[in-house]
Amino acid sequence: MRKLLFIVALLAAAALHAQSPPAQAAGYMLAFSDNFATLSLSSGTSSGFNWYDTGFFYPTPLGIITDPSGTYVNLNWASSQVYDTNMATMSSNGTTGRAWTYGYIEISMLFNPTTGSWPALWMFGPSANSSGLGTYTGPELDIFEWNSQAPTTFTGTIHNWASGAAGTYEQVNTTPGGITYSNFNTYGVLWNQRQVCWYLNNVSQGCVSTTGSPFSSNFALPMFLLLSQQAGCNYVPSYNTPCAGQVSPLNMQVQWVHVFTPPVGGAAVKGVNKGTVIQ
Q1: Domain that holds residue 108
Q2: Where are the strands (E) in the chain, listed by range?
Q3: When you count CB atoms within 10 A of the terminal residue's CB, does the N or C end of the chain come out lower?
Q4: In this predicted structure, what is the pLDDT of residue 82?
Q5: Distance (Å, whole) CA 104 – CA 260
Q6: The whole model's pTM is what?
């Protein structure tokens, strides 16, 4: 039995190391990977899961999240629900899950590029869940957002939250050619001590510096990952202002997620069974 457990551990370690980072993250190490062969999702706050819904500070899960074929996870939004359909690597109370400080995150995702669709791949600080958004001071990193009123635009943003307000932000807006958003594309972000850089299918979309105020302190804090199928036009949620021509239902599919962290000494990880960030 002991020998069998040793072999299983070796195979698990080999699987992690089998996935190599792209060139822009050379030298980084795989810290988290999910190809959704099975759906490791909890609607509560128990440890031992890859994902949590709501995964944010909403009181109850919303939307339908399924793994129909063992090859992708589907996030469904319908007009009958109030808020977004979310899943995250952190529980809704901010006490259980995974968060990282610095790294390269890449996600293979497709969505319905139709009126009112607002898919978002983003990161947020655990304290927003534990203490509430109304008092949150910390970072937000939007890996990718899409707006049906600007359908050819790739948008990536960093926000500096202060006392519950999104406040100062910097972003990149590009118009990448040859992209079909209804097909799987790879959305990536490189986050280090100096800057945040966005990638689409491993092609750079631009960078913004985090060395100056007010970003320098907040962007040295850990963040967890969120996958969200939202709805609305011009980045205004449909539950605040209904979007003219809003399509329902909407579906976002995620094929896999990889998180690579810097070499030892450069990453902080919040472990599944740990309540504090460990260096």
Answers
A1: 2-269
A2: 29-34, 41-42, 51-52, 64-66, 73-77, 85-88, 100-101, 103-111, 117-124, 138-145, 154-161, 169-174, 185-191, 195-200, 203-209, 224-233, 236-237, 250-261, 268-269
A3: N
A4: 81
A5: 5
A6: 0.88
